[in-house]
Amino acid sequence: MRRHTGFFITAAILALLIALNFGAYFSGTAAQAEESGQFIKWVDFNIPYTALEKALQLDIEAHNRGESIDWVDLLACVAAQNGNNWKGYRHSDLESIARRLQEGETLETITENLSYFDYYREAYGAVLDNFVGEYQIGTGEVDAAGQPVLETRYGLKAYSPIGHGYAFEHYKDFGNSRTYGFTRKHLGNDLMGQIGTPIMAVESGIIEHLGWNQYGGWRIGIRSLDKKRYYYYAHLRKDAPYAEGLEEGMLVQAGDLIGYLGMTGYSQKENVNNMQTPHLHFGMQLIFDPSQEEGGQEIWIDVYPLVELLYRHHTSPVVTDPENPNAFLRKYAFCDPVVTQYLAQGEQKEETTVEESSCLTVEESSPAR
């Protein structure tokens, strides 16, 4: 009996030491990390969809009251309180923090004893910071000059990767085993649907990769304009995988049509359907340092809860291209202020899907009613 007791005491001490060492990894602030040349090397993004939705709701409600409550701040506070263990999450966890902010407490006061808040704020911000804000969307009408009439809205401005009105199925498959070529973990979420389903850009960004890959088939990789997120869309349609005119280096906006769902891949030969089921492989990579772009330091997160949030709240409608009955076009004009700033800086002027006439005249857009 004493031997068992001693074993459990020893085990408890070891567990405590491991926890302390693990916690020490995350305790530095972003400023301290910058000064020491350190950067985040690991992120466990396991926030449930229900928490994402509640935080989004609280952010939008605050904006409608003329206040500012950042949904990422709320989520980071809760993670710092629960140690990123969301199994016991309740909406009241987020509501209580939002209430304190609404009553006049500062974020600094609320988080002064939350040792890991800075880590979670930076980690979650790398995923979510450009998902919510003001944007302009077409009303479906045009002005006297033939330009789309835009109205200003606030809310979720990132889009579902699946076009509006198109069905798909998915399950939690992040980390599952894959064996083609070599044994590895599945670093994304497979969205099963019909061949030809329109695939949309989740966030505005620059196309970094476009073409064939023996694992992903026809695929497209888009880097966010703040360079923190890399979106990977794979197994696109055979023969006609992409929206017309796309090229590497081109700027696309959130909700733009970028391609079509297919089943290509698992072949060294191009344009081959070797996947068993038509689906989109959708992944998100976080990049805190250039060394994490390729190789063993890559950080990929579980996007399942993000797919749930985006599909339930923000999908992009398409219409048939009048010049090509087998292709689609985005239905409503859209303008992301992040893109407006990017274009105004004189970058990316030649290759872009963005209509500058609508994106550079944001101040003339009509307010939402």
Report on the structure:
The N and C termini lie far apart (73 Å). β8 (217-224) and β9 form a beta hairpin. 30% of the residues lie in helices and 23% in strands. The protein is built from ten helices and 17 strands. With 369 residues, it is α+β, with helices and mostly antiparallel strands. The longest helix is centred in the first third of the chain and has 25 residues, at 2-26. It has helices at residues 2-26, 30-36, 49-64, 71-82, 91-102, 107-111, 117-128, 304-313, 337-344, 356-359; strands spanning 132-142, 148-156, 177-178, 184-185, 189-192, 198-200, 205-213, 217-224, 229-234, 251-252, 257-260, 279-286, 299-301, 318-321, 324-330, 334-335, 366-367. Strands 5, 7, 8, 9, 10, 12 and 13 form a seven-stranded antiparallel sheet that branches. It has a four-stranded mixed sheet with strand order 16-1-2-17. It has a two-stranded antiparallel sheet with strand order 3-4. It folds into two domains: 49-129, no CATH class; 156-367, Glucose Permease (Domain IIA) (Distorted Sandwich), CATH 2.70.70.10.
Order of helices and strands: HHHHHHHEEEEEEEEEEEEEHEEEHHE
CATH level-two architecture of the largest domain: Distorted Sandwich
Give me the CATH fold name of the largest domain.
Glucose Permease (Domain IIA)
Q: What is the typical, i.e. mean, pLDDT?
A: 86
What share of residues are in beta strands? 15-25%
How would you sum up the major sheet?
Answer: 7 strands, antiparallel
How many extended strands? 17
